[in-house]
Each structure stands twice: as structure tokens, then as C-alpha cells.
């Protein structure tokens, strides 16, 4: 057992809310997002997502909860053998949907994030920023109830970062609760929103 | 309309026309290596099956051919009227239950049989050679050999009955031993195949942990992931097994074609005397078909064996590498 990364952390992400999660590198931002995404079990303490207790959640319900959450990973997690288009369409594909029912949505979204001409390209030839945008598109394509984004603007220039932030804001207006982990002060200054600050395993919330 | 948006539309059209990538990547090195391993092991297993079937079939043929006949030998003796003795022997057993036919090997044929040793131009009556009567037996209800022998001895004291039973017994024993050895080798071969396929499949599966993880993260259900992998590995296994089994069948056919072509030559005759017409019986082909199916299914099942399902987080447990935001390893 290593050290406790998070302790005395108590917070609630309201439906339709918008917040930044910040703190120095290694503070536990990614760890907290993993707890919310149910990809990590707390060694102690209580995590409930959409009213379900992680500890008593049957394994079969895990995918159903995850479908209500969109995630942008710090390291993107795109599948290298699928095109950008196919990566973004993957959430619908695993839900068993017909391609005809979502193709136009995926194409529109890819154009919106500036990947219109990179649709049929495999991720290994995308730039860091392009991968990041593909990962964001995959997370929001299904308009999830909650979006967890880990450093979603870490690889893009400031104008594109602002554009992506607007996209998140728009998504939030449509009803998605958004949590953006970042240490980019400039980004946080663009929007007046709740800030969850992690430091030394504790949490400070600035509304 | 701008050029850019037209390009985008074209892209979309191209996208829709293009076949979707499979969820599990098809031709990576691990997948190809797995197919090759499966092809080789299937080939070797099928060759073993074919060889066992061939030996079994040959043994059965030898047995029935030899069991179908018995021979009566009449030794020459001063004052013995050989022709009368041959006829008497024939009379004695011709109506015997279990005897299907009796044929005296006549003087001309006996001479022909002896020609290689004694040369031609001899008079059989001058030579003290034994003469033969060939008895064809009813295979389904063979005669009582001791009654047959005593009936014969009563009619012609010089006659000796050789029922080939010593030969048949020895052949049966040999065929049984050969088949048993063949089956043992087949068992070893199948065990080796199963183990190789299991470990090669696990190896190929291990490279897919990342994919399994991402599928979980985008909300795929365990059943969906398992079905995708099972289908993928079933196809890989089937491809390898069909190639290996097909090569084995091609080899069987080539050998029997070779045997048929060389039927007239001495080498060919010798081989045919031993192994019949070299055709692997239907049981051999059925065995090959069975092996192909078993190996393909084995591959598919192994890809999602319980131990691996755990590893990949398919049972709903924590994915082993399921770190969200883990530092990039690529
Ligand atoms: N799987 C793990 N096992 C043990 N320790 C871990 C694991 N993952 C992360 N940690 C540790 O937990 C701490 C917090 O990590 P985390 O990734 O949550 O930080 P972070 O706030 O996201 O940092 P950054 O801003 O650099 O992304 C770090 O000290 C890290 O080494
Ligand atoms: Mg992090």
C-alpha cells in the first residue's frame, strides 16, 4: 500500500453544474476522476454515482452507468487500428446502434472540432492536439449526463483551448454536468465557475 | 459551398463506403503468428490422424485377406498317385460347412510358381515337390479347423492343412500394437496442439488489453466485448486450422495419386501390398474435419477463458491496467 493520495475529500457534483478541478501535478486530480468514472475503487470511503454506491454496484450495471458519463483521458486512449471517425463512433457502436443513425452526427462533431479532413486517418499520424480533439469528440458524442475531462486543453494552442472551452460550456447548457481537470489558470479565468482545488490530499472548494 | 466543406462531404462519403474496421485488430503480428502456429499444429495432428487411419485400414485388409484362405499341402511320396490324392483332398472338404470353394493348383501353375527357382522345361511328375490345394473360406462363418483337418487326414494321410492362423494371430497382434502406438502419438500430438493453441491465443490476447480497457471505458458490456473477441479468434483459429487441415488432405491425396500412378512398378506394388491403395479412409477425413472444428473452437474459447477474462476485467472486476490517466506508454 502506498501513501493515501486523497483523504478528507467530500464533494458533490450537481447535475448540470460546471466546475474546474485543479491543483498541483500529482495532487490526485486524475485519481479523483477515476473514482468518479468507476475505474478505481476507493480503499476506504464512499463513492456514489447517479445515486448508486460503488461498493454495492453489481458488475453488470457498470457499463450502463459508464454510458451516462463521457471521459476525456489525459493520454487520449484512442484505438490505433481505427480511424478518427471510427474512434469517435465507438461509443455508439458498442451500444449496438446502426451506423446510419449516427454517421451524420459524428461527421458534424468532427468538423466542429476541426478534424473534418482527418476523419479517415489513424490516430498514430495525428498530432497531439488532434488526438486530444478526437478524444473530446468521443467523450461528448452521446451528450452524456456528466463529462469528466482530464487536461482536455493540454495539447492545444490558447485560441483552440478557448474554442474547446466554449464547446464544453455549450454542452453544459444542454444539460451535462462538466468537470474539467486542469492547471491552466488562464483557461479557468475565462469562465466564472466553481473551482475544486486539491492539495495535500485535501479539497478546497471556491464557488 | 466552400472547397473545405466539399472535401468534408467527400470524406464522409468515402467513410460510409469503406468497410468498418473490426473492433479487434485483424492482422497484427501476434494474430498472424497465432494463425501460423494453429496451421502447423493442425497439419501435424491431421497427418497423425491420417497415418493412424491408414495403418488401421491396412491391418484390417491384411487380416481379412489372409483369413479368407487356407492351404492344403500334399507332400510327394513314393507310390502316391498325386492327382488322385489332390482330387481326394478336394472331395473331402468341398462340402464342408464354412468352405466357400476349393481349387487345386494344377501342374502348370505349380511349375510357374517354381520357375524362378528351378528354371523352365521341367516335368512336374519328375520332381518331388509338394502340391497345393487352395481353400477359400467363408469369412462370416469360418469352418471348424480341427474337424476340417481330421477329415482331410482321414482321406489323404499325406495332406497337411495350413489355416494361416499363426499368421493372422501375429498380424492382429501387430496391427493392434501399431494402432495403439499411433493412438498414443495422436494423444500426445493433440495435447501438444491444445497447449500450443491455448498459450499462443493467450499471448495474442494479452496484446489486446488496451483495447479491452477502452471498450469498457466507452460503455461496452462484458458480453459485447467477449463476443467480439470470440468471433475474432474463431476466425483466426478457423483460418489456421483450415489451412493446416487442407494441407494435410492435399498431402493424403497426393500420396494416393502417387500410389495409383506407381501401381505397376515393383516399388509401388510393394508399398501397396503393405498399405493397400494408400487411401486414407473416410474416418481419416472425418478426423481431419473434426480436428479443424475442435481447434478453431478451442481458440475462440481460450481467448475468453475465465483466467483471461479476469485479466482483462471482463468479469467486472478492476481492469488490471485500468488506470485512468496512466502515463502514456506508447
Ligand atoms: N495506480 C497507481 N498506483 C499508485 N499510485 C498512483 C497510481 N496512480 C497514481 N498514483 C499516484 O497518485 C498521485 C496522484 O496522481 P494523479 O495522477 O491523480 O495526479 P494528478 O493530479 O492527475 O497529476 P497531473 O496534474 O500531473 O496529471 C501521484 O503521486 C501518483 O504517483
Ligand atoms: Mg492527471
Describe the structure.
Chain A has 207 residues and is of the alpha/beta class. Chain A has 2 domains: 1-68 and 144-207, P-loop containing nucleotide triphosphate hydrolases (Rossmann fold), CATH 3.40.50; 79-143, no CATH class. Chain A is built from 7 helices and 8 strands. In chain A, strands 4-5-6-1-7-8 form a 6-stranded mixed beta sheet, with helices on both faces. Chain A has a two-stranded antiparallel sheet with strand order 2-3. In chain A, α3 (84-94) packs parallel to α5. The longest helix of chain A is centred in the last third of the chain and has 16 residues, at 158-173. Chain A is globular. Chain B has a 4-stranded antiparallel beta sheet with strand order 2-3-1-4. Mean pLDDT of chain B is 78; it is low at 1-17 and 310-330. The A-B interface holds A 30, 33-34, 37, 39-41, 58-60, 62-64, 66-67, 71, 73-75, 77-79, 81-83, 85-86, 90-91, 93-96, 99, 103-104, 107, 111, 116-117, 119-120, 138, 150 and B 4-5, 7-8, 11-12, 14-16, 18, 20-21, 23, 25, 28, 210-211, 213-222, 224, 315-319, 322-328. The structure holds adenosine-5'-triphosphate and magnesium ion (MG).
Short description:
The complex is a heterodimer of chains A (207) and B (330). Chain A has 207 residues and is α/β, with parallel strands linked by helices.
Question: Which tags fit this structure?
Answer:
heterodimer, A: 207 residues, alpha/beta, Rossmann fold, 2 domains, six-stranded mixed β-sheet, two-stranded antiparallel ribbon, 33% helix, 16% strand, B: 330 residues, alpha+beta, four-stranded antiparallel β-sheet, 66% helix, elongated, disordered N terminus, disordered C terminus, binds adenosine-5'-triphosphate, binds magnesium ion
CATH architecture label of the largest domain in chain A: 3-Layer(aba) Sandwich
- By secondary-structure content and strand pairing, the structural class of chain A works out as alpha/beta
Strand content of chain A: 15-25%
- Number of DSSP helices of chain B? 11
N- and C-termini, Cα separation of chain B: 40 Å
Report mean pLDDT of chain B, rounded to a whole number.
78
Number of strands of chain A: 8
CATH homologous superfamily title of the largest domain in chain A: P-loop containing nucleotide triphosphate hydrolases
- How does the helix and strand content of chain B classify structurally? alpha+beta
End-to-end separation of chain A: 34 Å
Integer tally of domains of chain B = 2
Give me the side-by-side strand order of the main sheet of chain B.
2-3-1-4
Q: What's the gyration radius of chain B in Å?
A: 34 Å
